[in-house]
Amino acid sequence: MGNLSTGKRKFSMLCAVLLVLLAVLFFASIRTGTMNIPFPQIWSAFFGSDVGNQRMTLFEFRLPRIVLAMLIGAGIAVSGGILQSISRNPLADPGIIGVNAGASFSVVLYTFFFKGTAFLAGVVSVFVMPFFALTGAFLSAILVYLFAKKGGSVAPARLVLTGIGLNAAFNAATTVLQMKMDPQDFTKTLTWISGSIWATNWDYVLVTLAWMVVLLPFAIYKARYLNIMRLDEPVITGLGVPLEKERLKLLGTAVGLAGCCVAVGGGITFLGLIAPHIARGIMGTKHEFSLPLTALIGANILLLADTVGRVVMPSLELPVGIVISILGAPYFIFLLMRTA
């Protein structure tokens, strides 16, 4: 009982620290960009004073982008945490097992045939882009699950290996399509695949928020099954847990989170790998604690990466996926060496 109380106190303290850090990053991000806006003018814009173009910059561009970065960061991070648990592989994330590649291929395929209309503003594009990205993500996940299934069950190692193979296949097909595009569409899709939070309007925020409000609480609700999945399969079966049924539900949740985030944020890799490891390192392996922390850590990391990308190259805005990859690749190699 004492250990549980201590764990809850530690969890509450860590959540408070991460929320404070997120607030600091929020104000730093809303201030910086191509045009830095002083805090007094930000205050005036939020509380109704007319400050011209700065008000539009804050409410129509920076604020929706910041909210999207936090939502996408939380979604991809939790998706990675779920995939690492159900595959029993600490190196798994949505990018490695093919979910991102499937979503990217679907969006590039759509762009190839409709000649760039995917990136036009409007009500239709708000639903078309997420629809195609989610279709590709779920198609990839279904193929991974079917190919990995043998004898009525899915071996975690086979799940990851199948995902890596499909990831390579989708990436190759995506490259072929890009080679046949005109330069303008090629540039757009390349930026999107690199991980660019391009959907900077409130319509995309609302669509993404709707997915997060449903899927994130569901993932945390299912945390007890993720705890059980650390055990050997005969033990899980002996406890009366429908392993394949729960694994499929959690896989669908992870794919839904990743697919929705990829739809508006592009192919952001390594975030789903880094954030769960940091959460488990500071809190332990109980998923009812580690998953909420994973979401907060993911939101912090992606908002930081997006802010850095805007500050380092303000005229071009370095895609957030590239910043995450610069940070994540060395960490991935470190984990690979430690696991080996």
Automatic annotation (TrEMBL):
Compartment(s): Cell membrane
Entry superkingdom: Bacteria
Chief localization: membrane
Record has Lyase as a keyword: no
One Pfam family from the record: FecCD
Position of the signal peptide: none
Keywords, ordered alphabetically: Cell membrane, Membrane, Transmembrane, Transmembrane helix, Transport
GO MF terms held by the record: transmembrane transporter activity
GO BP terms: siderophore-iron import into cell
InterPro entries linked to this entry: ABC_BtuC-like, ABC_transptr_permease_BtuC
Family: Belongs to the binding-protein-dependent transport system permease family. FecCD subfamily.
The name this protein goes by in its record: Iron complex transport system permease protein
Species whose genome carries this gene: Heyndrickxia coagulans DSM 1 = ATCC 7050
